[in-house]
Amino acid sequence: MSVFAHAEFDGHEQIVHAFDADTGLRAIIAVHNTARGPAVGGCRMWPYTDEAAALTDVLRLSRGMTYKSALAELPFGGGKSVIIGNPARDKTPELFEAFGRAVEQLGGRYIAAEDVGTSPADITHARRVTRHVAGLPDGSGDPSPVTAYGVFMGMKAAVRHRLGKSDFRGLTVAVQGLGHVGSELCRLLHESGAKLLVADISAERVAAVCAAFDAQAVPADRIHTADVDIFAPCALGGGLNDDTIPQIRAGIIAGAANNQLAEPRHAEVLRGRGVLYPPDYVVNAGGIINILYEKPGYDADAAFAHVARIHDTTLEILARADRAGITTAAAADHLAEERFKGPALKAA
Predict the structure, then answer these.
(1) Which of 47, 131, 291, 315 makes a 20 to 30 Å CA pair with 308?
(2) Looking at 26-30, 251-255, 256-260, 326-330, which range is the least confident one?
(3) pTM: predicted TM-score of the whole model, two decimal places
(4) Residue 348 contacts by C-beta under 8 Å, 6 or more apart in sequence?
(5) Are strands 110-114 and 39-46 parallel, antiparallel or unpaired?
């Protein structure tokens, strides 16, 4: 498998494969860019079909973290890690200690946190052998509420840009995925006056959100087709693709999922259909912003105030896209690259 020729390779600074026979650890750590600071990004545990699928995911995710941190004006670079395994079956404290040893060997170039399939408690096991971790229970803990708030603020900016409204009253939002972030987003939207349609693979989550926020349940494989004002993908990535985009009826797409576009060209497809898409790595940056405020001591007020700036960043990107006649993804990329490839950084 050629990493340098991989379609998702984007000048990554370092890619490490970590293996531990005793614990069964099979992990890949990708450091994309450290121009602004150490690479920070979550550790995802997933039952990938093979190593190639895991490599594709970690390359895409780590690149996204570079752009996300730059757009959030953080002193961080971009990195990510993936563990190949079933999080419901294969987790052990020893596995995450082995993962922690792999992180430690990078000498602080990469800082790990929780992600899909992992939790702050899992990362605590890694901390036994490395200090290069964040988002721990005795720090800021679960970043989901902060992440959801950022998505809410980015969505609010999109509504202002497209509809000229300052709240969600009279609007219907379809939320796909009701994990910690998706459920909290539903709460914020409900309190702002939105009507909610929701879907998740867990019937229990759907029932809980419907009861709490007066939402209407929709089959998980049909939620993207709902006739709504806003579609919020909050599950796994790749959901905006050749099959789903022609079925989408929402005028705005804004959600918490990473890598929502199956391929970069789908940003132009959405633009051609008149769908406003604030890129996921702009609006879902709350979790990474939260990490900045963990030390020394966690300052929740400062963290949420920083996350609120996602609103203005989103507005700037949407306006840039309109002025230049380009996709919102291209506008976001240009702004991020100004921040991590700029003359000052090169001179430093």
Answers:
(1) 131
(2) 256-260
(3) 0.86
(4) none
(5) parallel
